Amino acid sequence: MDTSTLADIILYAHFLYILGVVVPIPLIVIGAQRGWRWIRNRTYRRIHFAMILFVVFESLIGMMCPLTVWEEALRKGDPAAPDYSQGFIATWISRVMFFSFPPWVFTLQYLLVALLIWELYIWIPPRR
After folding, report:
1. Helix axes 103-123 and 3-22, enclosed angle (nearest 10)
2. Are 49 and 117 in contact (CB under 8 A)?
3. What whole-number distance in Å separates Cα of residue 25 and Cα of residue 58?
4. Are residues 23 and 105 in contact, defined by beta-carbon separation less than 8 angstroms?
5. Between helices 103-123 and 24-34, what is the axis angle to 10°?
6. How far apart are CA 78 and CA 33, in angstroms?
7. DSSP label at 124?
8. 82-102: burial string, b at 16+ Cβ within 10 Å, e else
9. Is the pTM here over 0.90, yes or no?
10. pLDDT in tens, 1-16
11. Per-residue model confidence as pLDDT tens digits over 18-74
């Protein structure tokens, strides 16, 4: 497997991680209204909260995401892609995921999402 393919796999995993943080937010609200039992699963909700806390922690200490670092290192090591050229799907996922804003904007965003997830934990508490 070449480095470009490995980098794409890491990018997809990174995208799935983001979806794993974002998608449950509306599902928890909708599920509470519709009586979905799985949205009150304590383990699921704790993992969900821990996922955003990890991102907040990274951001607060100024650490770059390990998945981003790994992907960039693999793309630099690919002589066939010196300009970071990617496949169609990888290119669009990158455009959705990565923006050029000052770091504080992302830290604030992560903190607000963590606060929202915490509030959902209180408003729609998990059950045993």
Report:
1. 50
2. yes
3. 21
4. no
5. 20
6. 49
7. S
8. eeeebeeebeebbeeeeeeee
9. no
10. 888 889 889 989 999 9
11. 999 999 999 999 999 999 999 999 999 999 999 999 999 999 998 888 998 898 888
Give residue-wise pLDDT tens across range 77-88.
Answer: 655 543 445 555
Look-up of token digits 């943080």:
21
| Residue with the two structure tokens 């209204």 | 33
CB 78 within 8 A of CB 3: yes
Answer for the pair 43, 125: CB distance below 8 angstroms, yes or no.
no
Question: Minimal CA–CA distance to 8: which of 59, 102, 80?
Answer: 80
Cβ contacts of 116-121, under 8 Å, gap ≥ 24: 116/25, 117/21, 117/25, 117/48, 117/49, 117/52, 118/49, 120/25, 120/28, 120/29, 121/45, 121/49
How far, in Å, CA of 48 to CA of 27, rounded?
A: 12
